[in-house]
């Protein structure tokens, strides 16, 4: 294959003959805690590519512009090339993970209203939480209109994905999004939508079906990823 454009923890991005399109190859490698924990989840690349493809298509049909083009192979997706915004946009419906540490609330506490948080995408700094003033006045990452649009889009994505996952018998606890601008300057949803960057608990019994099983050595990691794939494909179609 051609030279690598970029290699992240979970994906390798290759150029294609069209400079506006890239090929993402999803890896089975797993990392957690800013890459301090490493491992492999067999089949993860295919699960994450396929679940992402289904969810990007669902979002596109609901009017959310995304970078998704096609799935040429089980663990590969074609994406429009974006100029990425260095923010991780996290949406939360239920308290879990770092929000437990930040607030002392019990994991599983249902939030009255979904919230959106922004983290600085910077591995060297450990992706710190940013407030609006950090984003607008200190880092000048985006302007106020762009920030409002990110919030609006993230809430729209949450409404669409929460409803879909509910039909799959899954609670969408929280998730992380990344956005970028295409060549025409249009905001698009980028990155992936998979059990790597979403917390997914079964409606019945709150069984954890996401990367927390890997993060916290809970076992049955591969089975959980396969279960998400099966449930998503059963609802979205092959
Ligand atoms: N998340 C992610 N990448 C990150 C940090 C968080 O995909 O670098 C996702 C994570 O899987 C969860 C949500 O964002 O679905 C919220 O994560 P949280 O802030 O609770 O951090 P964590 O507890 O995962 O460190």
Quick summary:
The protein is α+β, with helices and mostly antiparallel strands and 238 residues long. It has 2 domains: 6-80, Phosphorylase Kinase, domain 1, CATH 3.30.200.20; 83-221, D-amino Acid Aminotransferase, Chain A, domain 1 (2-Layer Sandwich).
Model description:
The structure is a single chain. The chain is of the alpha+beta class and 238 residues long. The radius of gyration is 17 Å and the shape is globular. It has 6 helices and 15 strands. The protein has a 5-stranded antiparallel sheet with strand order 1-2-3-7-6, covered by helices on one side. The chain folds into 2 domains: 6-80, Phosphorylase Kinase, domain 1 (2-Layer Sandwich), CATH 3.30.200; 83-221, 2-Layer Sandwich (D-amino Acid Aminotransferase, Chain A, domain 1). The protein has helices spanning 44-61, 98-103, 132-139, 144-167, 212-215, 221-236; strands at 6-7, 11-15, 21-26, 29-32, 37-40, 68-73, 76-80, 83-84, 87-94, 110-120, 129-130, 170-177, 179-181, 187-189, 198-202. The model has no long low-confidence stretch (mean pLDDT 97). Uridine-5'-diphosphate (UDP) is lined by residues 88, 90, 96-99, 127, 174-176, 197-199, 211.
